[in-house]
Specification:
- The protein is mostly helical and 193 residues long.
- 73% of the residues lie in helices and 0% in strands.
- The protein has helices at residues 3-23, 34-47, 53-65, 78-88, 97-103, 106-113, 117-127, 133-159, 164-192.
- Helix 1 packs across helix 2 and helix 7 packs across helix 8 (133-159).
- The protein starts with a helix and ends with a helix.
Amino acid sequence: MEGEQLKQGKERVRKNLIEPLERARMKRKAGWTVDQHLAMMSSLEARLAYMSAKNLQALAECCERHAGGKLKDVWPAEVSICNWARRLQEPPASESRLVRSYLQSGAGVAARAGDYLVELFVHLKRVGIPPNDYVLKELQQRAQDRARAHDRIKRGIASGSASPSERAQLDAYHQTMRRCVAIVEAGKQGAEA
């Protein structure tokens, strides 16, 4: 998320999460300076900019309900807020630092060369941790199974016997592959800059 889109997202976070909680008299953590608190608010704006207004409003309710302090009026930890946010609305892959950095690493390049990039992407989004060797072998096996299924669908398309759902499955895969390749390529462009 960049430029105007990021600016609008940050404003949405301010209007739907931060300002309502400040109006409700939510306070900074004990022992925190104003600068530390403002840095956390700024970080939340950037990290949650992908969220819709409706989900930010729901997140504000979560924060209010789980406020700390004796009077339940202290902001929860940033990590807690971001975890609740992910449960309400999963960030797009391009916003996930884990997905972006892992696909842009040597592991992503190897996955692209080995034709299991989409399977790796799905794993990272679903599980939220890099795969170990055992999981990598499973992803490679899934990729082989997927490739065989796609070959069968392509033959069905050529003969006119492929169902609409099979065509949609193939289209969805290609769309996800384009998304993954764009993430990998963005990493290459960043490295060259």
